[in-house]
Amino acid sequence: LETWVVTTFILITTGAGSSGASPVNASILRLFRLLRLSRLARMLRSMPELMILIKGMVSASRSVFFTLLLLFVLLYIFAIALTQLSAGNPVISSETGVNIFKTIPHSMYYLLISGV
User: Fold this and answer.
1) HSE on the CB side for 57, CA within 13 Å?
2) How many Å apart are CA 37 and CA 26, to the nearest integer?
3) pTM of structure
């Protein structure tokens, strides 16, 4: 059966949708939620290729995190430099007529959005 069918059936039969639901009904629903997680674990054991893909994504997430951190640091450094360079000579945006390197957060935003 589909999970939404089972969940709906349990909600209707136990009356958990009513305002006077007892804590026993809530614990039954938590038990069924754990059963759903065990079904996911069985599926991962039956398909080892899927587990290999998940492990690869987890191990690659560390490299992606440090790459994004490096890009953020470079963005911050260039925002500081451009804010300092334009302090005496404001760089005016031609469309809005606003100083685009007024503060470091404005500079970072402009470099992130318009620099792409």
Assistant:
1) 6
2) 17
3) 0.54
User: What does the angle CA 108 – CA 113 – CA 114 come to, to the nearest 5 degrees?
Assistant: 100
The mean predicted confidence, pLDDT, of the chain is 78
Task: Calculate Rg over the CA atoms of the chain.
Answer: 27
Number of residues that this document lists for the chain: 116
Give the DSSP H or E segment for 107.
helix 104-114
> What pLDDT does 34 receive?
73
Q: Are 16 and 10 in contact (CB under 8 A)?
A: yes
Contact (Cβ atoms closer than 8 angstroms) between residue 85 and residue 49: no
